[in-house]
Design goal:
Blueprint (H helix, E strand, L loop, with lengths): L10 H7 L1 H14 L4 H9 L18 H14 L1 H13 L8 H8 L6 E3 L5 E5 L2 E11 L7 E9 L15 E7 L4 E3 L13 E11 L3 E2 L18 H30 L12 H35 L4 H28 L12 H11 L7 H12 L10
Parallel strand pairs: 1-4, 2-4
Antiparallel strand pairs: 2-3, 3-7, 4-5, 5-8, 6-7
Length: about 400
């Protein structure tokens, strides 16, 4: 059994206990560009895909900090696994916007996993639901999923775009069995190789109306727990920031371990080199500061929701800023550790080069865009509202 024996052991402890398995499977995950059956089975057995799922559907409905610590622990062992768990866990928050019977049908079994790609395309409204033919990209975790989703605009019968009261297009998140889609193997990349972030398409697919959620529209919530006062986009930021912290922690720890042992002919041992000592001290401070900032931002947001019942625009902006900054700082930590390791870092047998590639893949993601600083800066200066999108 991969599942820890102690009943009631927490999600963070379960994730930590799986580290040896994840580390042992990392090479195969990288080679096949998807999580291995052993890893997926262990994640399911330990409920790690259910961290953000409503309790009424069999989930944990965990506070954000628990979700983040869980991902951080997984990422220390394998970033691709952490990325998939983070992505699919946030997708599970959609259950809070679905009728109970539909939510149970999609997410109710232990091995029910959903994934989705980037926002694109539009469904055609028809009696009883919608139809669509389209293709979507960037669906991390889809190779483990038995349900897929997509974020789409809605075309009315007369061809006009359905609009929200505020004048913006209505966005529906449609959900359908993975067996209804054709998958396209596209994920040939340098980092996060094991996420299987491939593409999928459907042809003339009918979506019943109750399988098309108004996700992140709080007026459409069926579940009233405080967790669902946070949008999925904000939760992605909290989660992927935590993944970057886990990668950075593991990379810096590997560099510290190397520095304790490495000796070069004619050069002082790394551990006795004052330049190395100073670099490790400054880098350790950078990582600890980024982690404290990110986790305190999550804690502050959670306390605000518990106290007021909702997250303010300031709280949402704080998450956007924290996630972006944390990913950037984590990337700098990984680069420092990689260069500190010297030629040792380039060998695949050592714990540097994959993490270096994974971190740089994370750095390229939506949650790490530089324009987030501009959005928050504009809000600070003009009291404006930062954009909600794009949707992942």
């Amino acid at each position: 059994m991969n599942k820890p024996e102690a009943a009631g052991i927490g999600l963070v402890e379960r994730a930590r206990a799986l580290a040896p398995l994840l580390a042992a499977e990392a090479d195969e995950i990288e080679r096949t560009r998807r999580l291995t059956p052993k890893v997926v089975s262990a994640l399911i057995e330990n409920g790690l895909y259910k961290s953000l799922l409503p309790k009424n559907i069999g989930g944990f409905e965990s506070p954000p900090v628990v979700f983040m610590e869980m991902l951080e622990e997984i990422a220390k062992a394998d970033a691709s696994t952490a990325w998939c768990v983070g992505q699919c866990s946030v997708v599970g928050m959609t259950a809070a916007y679905l009728d109970a019977d539909v939510a149970h049908q999609i997410f109710g079994k232990p091995d029910d996993i959903a994934a989705w790609g980037a926002i694109a395309h539009a469904v055609q409204a028809v009696p009883g639901g919608y139809t669509i033919s389209a293709r979507w990209d960037f669906a991390s975790g889809m190779r483990q999923a038995n349900w897929l989703g997509a974020h789409v605009q809605v075309l009315e019968a007369d061809g006009t775009t359905r609009m929200r009261p505020n004048g913006t297009p209505e966005i529906r998140t449609i959900l359908f069995p993975a067996s209804s889609a054709t998958t396209h193997d596209m994920w040939n990349v340098i980092g996060l190789c094991g996420t299987g972030t491939d593409s999928y398409s459907v042809e003339n697919l009918f979506i019943p109306d109750n399988f098309a959620a108004l996700r992140d529209d709080f007026s459409a919530l069926r579940e009233k727990g405080p967790l669902y006062g946070i949008t999925t986009y904000s939760m992605f930021g909290l989660g992927f920031g935590a993944v970057s912290l886990g990668v950075a922690r593991a990379t810096l720890d590997a560099a510290i371990d190397l520095a304790r042992k490495k000796h070069s002919v004619g050069i002082a041992a790394m551990k006795d080199n004052s330049a190395v000592q100073g670099l490790i001290g400054r880098t350790e401070a950078k990582l600890r500061a980024a982690r404290t900032y990110h986790f305190s931002t999550a804690s502050n947001a959670w306390q605000e929701i518990l106290s007021t019942g909702k997250l303010s625009e300031q709280g949402r902006a704080a998450i956007r800023l924290s996630a972006t900054y944390t990913i950037h700082q984590s990337a700098e930590v990984v680069e420092t550790a990689y260069h500190m390791a010297g030629a040792t870092a380039v060998f695949k047998s050592n714990p540097f080069e994959r993490r270096f590639r994974d971190m740089h893949a994370i750095w390229q993601q939506i949650q790490s865009r530089d324009n987030h600083y501009e959005d928050v800066g504009k809000m600070i200066l003009t009291n404006s509202v930062i954009p909600r999108g794009p949707t992942m």
